[in-house]
Write a structure and sequence with these properties.
This protein is an all-alpha fold. The chain is 74% helix and 0% strand. It is elongated.
Amino acid sequence: MKEYSAKAQATRERILRAANDLFYEHGFNATGVDRIIAEAGVTKGNFFYHFRNKEELATAVLDWHRDLAFAEVGLEKILASRSPAKALLALLRGMASRMTGDKEACHVRGCFFGNFALELSTGSEPVRHKVQEILGGLRMLIQDLIEKAQAKGEVRKDLNAQKTAGLILGLMEGAVLLDKTNQTEKEVQHAVKFIADYLGV
């Protein structure tokens, strides 16, 4: 992995942030490198020093957005909870809030990772694999919390934790897709309540 000076790291951060916002708002294919460069306020030389092409940038942005999302939902604090069941619901509520809330744009932009999956699932293997890695990690996190909650008697023990984690992630992604289509924040909130009831929390 490259080592960057403080100045180079700041430039890289500006590119990632600009690309994140533009990809989220307009999608990957509709966002050109020149627009990212202009939005970030950097030169083409700066851009290509950090990223060989837009596809490489996209995989870096996905990692960057995952880290940002976990920080914004307070994942570290959530996981420190003594109750795995409460931690799971806090995680899902945090996800719901991030996927549907956009106070500045006043509209629902959906799940950043889901948007990439829908747009590039057959168009870019590196991007598809990165989305698969991130969603797979989230599924494992949900599964781990379910298993810990089952061990503490907080969640139904008759559930298969691995399958249930996949169902939960699929339900959340599907609900936010409906909310994005309808520009509401209703279905994902219903999904969280349904999951809580289903788990017996």
